[in-house]
Design a protein that fits this description.
Layout: H1 14-25, H2 27-30, H3 35-42, H4 46-55, H5 61-71, H6 80-89, H7 93-115, H8 118-129, E1 134-137, H9 143-153, E2 160-163, H10 168-174, E3 182-186, H11 193-204, E4 208-213, E5 226-229, H12 241-258, H13 262-276
Parallel strand pairs: 1-2, 1-3, 3-4, 4-5
Length: 283
């Protein structure tokens, strides 16, 4: 929007800056939201939305949406279901659908390479290696990522725990968070509230906090010391887990490299044990 060109957005209070930055980055989605929708997505009070709009010279959120529509009057914002349908309208049968799905995964991996900070991956690995305990919070369907990361790391970093249940399991581990620990929270788009509360508690108790997410506007980021960002899924039904699993692999490779020669000796001993126990059937 032209009237924002001369404004110093970074002078805004932090939460209001997050609101305006998100709106500018996602104008098509914003015009489809109401104040409550946006407040819930960004984990802020609805009043913050209104004040953020007033800070940039508008009457409120409704006025901002009018400005967005005016700036993009020749572009009809696509609803999520429109995006879903358009994804399949371009396919040529089942083979086309398969090819398109695989191509989008490649696109998401390429985008993750561009988006993630290698420096922050190294910083995260240093913290994990030096941790007293490392806890990985991945609730619901994201538990698959937490379990995967735990399985990768525990051969080299035995003090790793995956927290995948939001009942007594989560509460038990929260009671153990403390200084010297690393707590990794994994959450995308609509992050579970229990993950946010547990991550906040980890920060309050002095743990080193690392977040694996797909947006710098995630409510988890305000409690993190280090952010590992994957490429945002372009449509609502595409999962960011492709990038998340890739980051897990990168963390392992980085830790192995940083802990040589101990790590290579552990890997050799592990492979020897597999052979001695005849773990895999070789036909």
């Amino acid at each position: 929007m032209d009237f924002l060109k001369n404004l110093d957005l970074e002078a805004l209070p932090k939460k209001r800056y997050i609101v305006i930055k998100y709106i500018l980055d996602h104008p098509d989605e914003t015009v489809l939201m109401n104040t409550a929708d946006l407040a819930k997505k960004l984990n802020v009070d609805p009043v913050t939305i209104i004040k953020a709009c007033q800070d940039i010279g508008l009457k409120g959120f409704h006025d901002l949406k009018k400005q967005l529509k005016k700036s993009n009057r020749n572009v009809r914002p696509a609803a999520p279901f429109d995006k879903f349908l358009s994804e399949f309208e371009v396919n040529n049968g089942t083979e086309g659908a398969i090819r398109n799905a695989l191509s989008r995964d490649v696109e998401m991996l390429s985008g993750t390479i561009e988006k993630v900070s290698f420096e922050k991956i190294i910083k995260a690995c240093e913290a994990i290696i030096g941790s007293r305990q490392t806890y990985i919070i991945g609730l619901g369907y994201i538990g698959a990522v937490a379990n995967y990361l735990q399985s990768l790391l525990r051969s080299h970093i035995p003090q790793v725990h995956a927290i995948t249940e939001y009942n007594g399991m989560l509460f038990d581990y929260m009671g153990h968070f403390g200084k010297g620990d690393v707590v990794i929270a994994i959450g995308f788009d609509k992050c579970q509230n229990q993950t946010i509360k547990a991550f906040k508690k980890a920060k309050e108790k002095g743990a080193t906090t690392i977040v694996l997410t797909d947006s710098e506007y995630s409510p988890l980021c305000q409690y993190s010391k280090t952010e590992l960002l994957v490429y945002t899924a372009p449509n609502y039904f595409l999962s960011p887990l492709i990038g998340a699993f890739s980051i897990c692999n990168a963390l392992l490779h980085c830790i192995v490299e940083m802990t040589k020669p101990q790590s290579t000796r552990r890997s050799a001993a592990y492979n020897k044990l597999l052979q001695e126990e005849n773990v895999y059937y070789l036909g």
